[in-house]
Specification:
This is Adenylate kinase-domain-containing protein. By secondary structure, the protein is an alpha/beta fold. 43% of the residues lie in helices and 15% in strands. Bound molecules: adenosine monophosphate.
Length: 247
């Protein structure tokens, strides 16, 4: 774990099955950046039975998106609640903005005039065949949520959970036809979003390609250090060093 020298306001984009969750987790831990996920905020509203929660619950059950204006208001108020509006803060957004409309609303600063905008938009590019392959080879132990992959992380006994010995199954939403739909939907909503950030400021969008999480993370880690610099661990004589502080 280390600290960045300059504030990073990060958005990570990646198709379903691209390992976005893994990259997010590793990034937050590696650089000690706080993150918020729009899905988590909505699930909290649902649990607390708020008006937004009731709306989000019925919308997500139909597989639709919460309207842009409501979603942006919810996220902006969460950023304010955490005192993350100043340009000195680093944070990562997971799942928001998801559409071009949300990005425009966030940048208009109508909802949060003091908000400092995103300065690093990461696009995970994973070949479709790698995603479909990963999904086709994925098994889950439902009671614990333990995931296996027949290629990278197979169970010790075929078809059985390592810990309990209970049977493994496929996730219902890992059906290849359903999955293809989700990939198509992702592309349709994300491409305009990526274009928006590309046109907004040169160099904000950074695309990274790779077939495995380790290959992608190694590149991502290097790029974060290159852009934001990091304060490295104390040296033996107690002095601190700064690394990767290039602008
Ligand atoms: P997730 O956990 O990111 O899959 O989000 C769960 C559900 O919350 C989605 O299916 C959407 O209905 C809703 N949701 C999450 N983030 C957004 C967003 N940025 N815009 C609109 N709806 C969202």
């Amino acid at each position: 774990m280390s600290r960045l020298l300059r504030p990073a306001r990060v958005l990570l984009l990646g198709p379903p099955g691209s390992g976005k969750g893994t990259q997010t987790e590793r990034l937050l831990k590696r650089f000690d950046i706080p993150g918020i996920s729009s899905g988590d905020i909505l699930r909290r509203h649902i649990k607390e039975g708020t008006e937004i929660g009731m709306l989000a619950s019925s919308i997500s059950k139909q597989g639709r998106l919460v309207p842009d204006d409501i979603m942006t208001k919810v996220v902006a108020s969460e950023l304010g609640r955490r005192h993350w509006l100043s340009p000195a803060n680093s944070w990562l957004l997971d799942g928001f903005p998801r559409t071009r409309g949300q990005a425009e609303m966030l940048d208009s600063r109508e909802l949060a005039p003091a908000l400092a905008g995103l300065n690093f938009v990461v696009e995970l590019v994973v070949p479709e065949h790698a995603i479909l392959d990963r999904i086709a080879n994925r098994l889950v132990h439902v009671p614990s949520g333990r995931l296996y992959n027949l290629t990278y992380n197979p169970p010790k006994v075929a078809g059985r959970d390592d810990v309990t010995g209970e049977p493994l199954t496929r996730r219902a939403d890992d059906d290849p036809a359903v999955f293809r739909n989700r990939l198509d939907e992702y592309r349709a909503s994300t491409q305009p979003l990526v274009e928006y950030y590309r046109n907004k400021a040169a160099g904000v969008v950074w695309s990274v390609a790779g077939e495995t999480s380790d290959v992608i993370f190694a590149q991502l880690e290097r790029e974060v250090v290159r852009r934001f610099g990091e304060r490295v661990e104390e040296t033996a004589d107690g002095a601190e060093e700064a690394a990767g502080a290039a602008d």
